[in-house]
User: What shape does this take?
Amino acid sequence: MKNSLLALVITLVVAGCGSQEVKDYLPESNGPLNQVIVVADNELLDGETGTTLKSYLLERQLGLGVDEPKYDIRHLTPDIFKGAIMRSRAVVYVQLDTLSRAHIKRDMYATPQNLVVVKGRNTVELVQNLHQILPQAIDSFKKSDLNTAQTRFKRSLYTEPRLKKNFGIELTLPSIYRPAKFTDSFAWIDRPVENGSMNLLVYTLEADHFENEATFLQDLIAMRDSVGRAHVPGPDVEGVVTFMQTEPIFRPYIFPSEVGQFKAAEMRGMWDINGYPMAGPFVTYVVNDSINNRKVVLEGFVFAPNKDKRDYLFELEAIIKTLKIEPQR
Assistant: This one.
């Protein structure tokens, strides 16, 4: 009798552990980067609720020079939100209900996943709740997409020892990237894309390089242009010195940021080639390297004529934000 009871207890414990493992297991989320699944009835998406939702998700991505939205939207009605599509990484689920609320459910059907649930008793409440939750949701979507991109990089890595040797830094780079130019104080790494390239620049500055806050943006542009003149030539044109510069008419945007847990300044804008018709978007990060009392500059820029550039620049941002800095001897 005792043996039978013991066997029953062991069986129940094992069965309980097994069910917990099943409960804890979540499949990997799916879907393209920078895409949001919107689940809502057609009437909601066609009305004021949809207009509000689109004003956030389809907001123009700054610094690209052309109109590209922050996110692509894929609309589904609730009756077809099932199966594999429920494992999408970013979802906004909007519905009329008997209560009013807005919240983000993490890893509901997959991991990583942000499922934004917005409910309201009428359209007015839905719109109010969208305004309340979407700024936070978009921040979560961005972080999740960056982490996902960085995880994908690790599937096939390009290791560049000169980054550590010359600059004391590490970056997680996909294997498709290759060195274009290296000196003791400057690095240029790139990868081909259709009819163009994606490019990453690395260099350092003295810690006190930017002392005047009032002229910070102008000084950033001047710094960028001097590096372009010295290191990033354009095509050969007889009688003309061609080099990359900050596009003189399109004023760049500047934001506070963080890279590798260091405070940074982020500048987004357009570059062009002095003396030659080439242009594209760039993002530059000036990182305050408090470990080594210096500034580390990392820039991504894209040349891809007649192609959307949002996702290209997003990949470069994701690479830059894998930055690790080591103490210099």
User: Anything to note?
Assistant: The first strand starts at residue 35 and ends at 39.
